[in-house]
Write a structure and sequence with these properties.
Elements lengths: L4 H31 L7 H4 L1 H7 L35 H31 L7 H23 L2 H20 L16 H43 L23 H4 L8 H34 L7 H20 L7 H23 L12
Helix pairs in contact: 1-4, 1-6, 4-5, 5-6, 5-7, 7-9, 7-11, 9-10, 10-11
């Protein structure tokens, strides 16, 4: 089938517009995240780590935004006075702008993917450039769902960092003109297998970023507990300062007053995002591995041959299966499970770049050689 180079150029313009939108969204989310410095957590948030550790059946975390534990209101019983509408802070305005720009960029990327497929006359995920575009679109779609449901713009900032990097690499180093597929890819399994891999990998990226944020938030709360214990503000039931390595803390250098990590979602919210994203993506990724094995039997006469890409895909599957098991096992919830999720994310990225571009194997037709 003849390719349409002019439509391919239009598709690339859509890709560049999407990248520009993602960069603008990253800047807006970054400004909002930077402006959150100085936000002071509540006392309920300060002890959330201890409550989570004491919970045997679930992650018990007090969410500052939900307000599970609130300070007593001294105005109870008094007549409520009408309050003047407060203008949203500048950071919140940038967060809203970032969400709008991100949505527009996602629409531009969908336009780029559709026109790329029309230009090539096939499924638009036949090389590394197209696969990277699909992966980033899936990651942005997953992050948009989370952002519109939770309004946690800090998650958008952290998700857009790897998305912008992948989009930039895809649009520069991995980009190829619209071309026909190599003979090995002329199969209906391309539509099934690669689509499932790209979509599941994109959603797993959201889970990996949420797990990284969980670890950052957990470290922040540990430092906050150590500081309060050192200052004698948290009570005798908390971890003593000698056991937390808090010798360098002073009330004048309060973590709550200087750390931007206070604006991150609660541990419960981040754990929930990572878990639900993995629950959605893991069955799709499992299907992708099975479909790849069936395609291998059609193409090479065997279901499994421990090709480098097959091996790495299996390792990634085992890691995410271990994460789901750890997430449901007492003693492994929290930071331990988050570390496993991050390891799975690293394994997926290793399979995407190192295996495809560096290691020689039966899958070495990324469109660059």
């Amino acid at each position: 089938m003849m390719v349409n180079d002019q439509l391919g150029d239009i598709s690339y313009l859509g890709f560049q517009a999407a990248l520009a939108g993602y960069i603008a969204a990253l800047v807006c989310f970054g400004i909002e995240f930077a402006s959150s410095r100085g936000s002071t957590p509540t006392a309920a948030e300060a002890v959330s780590l201890r409550l989570r550790a004491e919970s045997r059946s679930r992650t018990a975390v007090i969410d500052r935004k939900v307000g599970a534990v609130d300070e007593p209101d001294a105005r109870i019983g008094q007549i409520a006075k009408p309050q003047r509408a407060v203008r949203p802070p500048m950071g919140a305005l940038f967060g809203r702008a970032g969400l709008i720009v991100l949505t527009i960029g996602f629409a531009a990327q969908l336009f780029s993917i559709v026109t790329r497929g029309m230009a090539a006359g096939r499924a638009p995920w036949g090389n590394m450039y197209e696969f990277t575009s699909m992966l980033c679109a899936a990651a942005v779609a997953g992050s948009l769902v989370v952002l519109y449901r939770t309004r946690s713009d800090s998650l958008g900032f952290f998700v857009m960092i790897p998305v912008v990097i992948l989009m930039f690499v895809g649009g520069t180093k991995l980009y190829v003109q619209v071309e026909s597929l190599v003979p090995a890819l002329h199969s209906y399994w391309l539509l099934i297998h690669v689509l499932a891999v790209s979509l599941s990998t994109g959603v797993l990226m959201v889970a990996g970023v949420a797990s990284v944020m969980y670890l950052l938030r957990a470290r922040y709360e540990r430092r906050l507990l150590a500081e309060k214990a050192w200052a004698g503000e948290s009570g005798s039931e908390l971890v003593p300062a000698a056991d937390t390595g808090s010798h360098g803390f002073t009330p004048q250098s309060s973590v709550a007053a200087t750390s931007r990590l206070a604006s991150l979602p609660s541990l419960a919210a981040l754990d929930r995002v990572a878990y639900r994203a993995t629950i959605v993506a893991f069955p799709v990724y499992t299907f992708a591995v099975i479909a790849g094995a069936m395609w291998a039997e059609v193409a090479w006469g065997r279901y499994w041959g421990w090709d480098p890409k097959e091996t790495c895909a299996f390792v990634s599957w085992v890691i995410y299966a271990a994460y789901l098991h750890a997430r449901a096992t007492a003693g492994w919830r929290g930071s331990k499970a988050a570390w496993i999720s991050v390891l799975g994310f690293v394994s997926v990225l290793f399979n995407l770049f190192v295996i495809n571009l560096v290691v020689s194997g039966l899958h070495s037709y990324a469109g660059l050689n």
